[in-house]
Amino acid sequence: MSAPCRLPARVLSNERAASDTYWLELDAPPIAETAVPGQFVMIGFGLQDLDAPFLPRPFSIGWRGEDGRIGLLVRRFGPGTHRLAALRAGEEVLLLGPLGRGFEWETGRALVCVAGGVGLAPFLFLAPEAIRNGASVSILYGERTGDRVFDPRLVEQLTGVRPDLYTEDGSIGRAGRVIDGIERGTESCLFGCGPTPMLKALERLAREAELSLQVSVEEHMGCGIGTCQGCVVRSSTGDWIKSCTEGPVFRREELAWPD
Ligand SMILES: Cc1cc2nc3c(=O)[nH]c(=O)nc-3n(C[C@H](O)[C@H](O)[C@H](O)COP(=O)(O)OP(=O)(O)OC[C@H]3O[C@@H](n4cnc5c(N)ncnc54)[C@H](O)[C@@H]3O)c2cc1C
Ligand code: FES
């Protein structure tokens, strides 16, 4: 995996994509050229911006264009993501990336991507790359409410895959949880990204059905490069491991899954 770069990146566009959710495109050729699906960037705001959070924030690389653009799917929670949501074309952010370990897949396998909320982001990158490498890909995408759904037509435009959509309020797509859409007894490889309860349910299902599963975990991160220890998760052997350098993608067997 190539060394990460640190660079100022110009905002090319920042569009509201759903309630509290933004599609942010940045000009970042060195990152677009070397990133693999599942990797992430740390976004910082620069010391001259005194009101912005001091620590950078991690985001999955959601897409890359051949012209050096990268796309990020950003949902507002606190000060960092509010700041990102307010960015306008022409402004700059500080990027560090690509970081971490990405997804792995075998040519010719059927991949089932299970996305909860903005856990959709890494699959917007994974799906077209895997399809180009001869895999078949399906995307199960769930949100709590319909107003948060990232337009399925855009998902199809970016990935070539029409997602199977689930909302818990039943207002768009099928009513229920995304996990309900997984067919047991298939030979598919599962890939998951989303809230921890969803990943736990996915792990239980994969274990019982003996399916291969890789998950991307979203721990809080202070540095993204292995120095602050802010992102540790418990491994299946009982050790604490850093999700920024050893993950964020893990095989299910590598992690402890307490009830
Ligand atoms: C590898 C990785 C990839 C990520 N990719 C994406 C992505 O593609 N798109 C995206 O929108 N986010 C992504 N995240 C999460 C994102 O980094 C956080 O939402 C962000 O750092 C929050 O910063 P903040 O300053 O807005 O909020 P903070 O001040 O850090 O948090 C505000 C409040 O929201 C809670 N909170 C923060 N983040 C989340 C969350 N993700 N889920 C639930 N509660 C949360 C905090 O516990 C706190 O209570 C990713 C995280 C990791 C580790
Ligand atoms: S985020 Fe600092 S060690 Fe992982």
In words, what does this structure look like?
The protein has 259 residues and is α/β, with parallel strands linked by helices. It has three domains: 5-99, Beta Barrel (Elongation Factor Tu (Ef-tu), domain 3); 110-215, 3-Layer(aba) Sandwich (Rossmann fold), CATH 3.40.50.80; 219-259, Dihydroorotate dehydrogenase B (pyrk subunit), domain 3, CATH 2.10.240. 18% of the residues lie in helices and 33% in strands. It has helices at residues 29-34, 79-85, 121-132, 152-159, 196-209; strands at residues 5-18, 21-27, 40-44, 57-60, 63-64, 69-75, 92-99, 110-116, 136-143, 164-167, 174-175, 189-193, 213-216, 232-234, 240-242, 249-251. A seven-stranded antiparallel β-sheet has the order 4-3-7-1-2-6-5. A seven-stranded mixed β-sheet has the order 11-10-9-8-12-13-16, sandwiched between helices. It is globular, with a radius of gyration of 17 Å. The relative contact order is 0.15. Flavin-adenine dinucleotide is lined by residues 40, 53, 57-60, 62, 72-75, 77-81, 118, 121, 218-219, 221, 248. FE2/S2 (inorganic) cluster (FES) is lined by residues 221-224, 226-231, 242, 244.
- Average predicted confidence as pLDDT: 94
Unreliably modeled segments: none
Biggest sheet statistics: 7 strands, antiparallel
Order of helices and strands: EEHEEEEHEEHEHEEEHEEEE
Strand order of the largest sheet: 4-3-7-1-2-6-5
How many domains comprise the coordinates? 3
Question: Any descriptors?
Answer:
single chain; 259 residues; alpha/beta; Elongation Factor Tu (Ef-tu), domain 3; Rossmann fold; Dihydroorotate dehydrogenase B (pyrk subunit), domain 3; 3 domains; seven-stranded antiparallel sheet; seven-stranded mixed sheet; 33% strand; binds flavin-adenine dinucleotide; binds FE2/S2 (inorganic) cluster
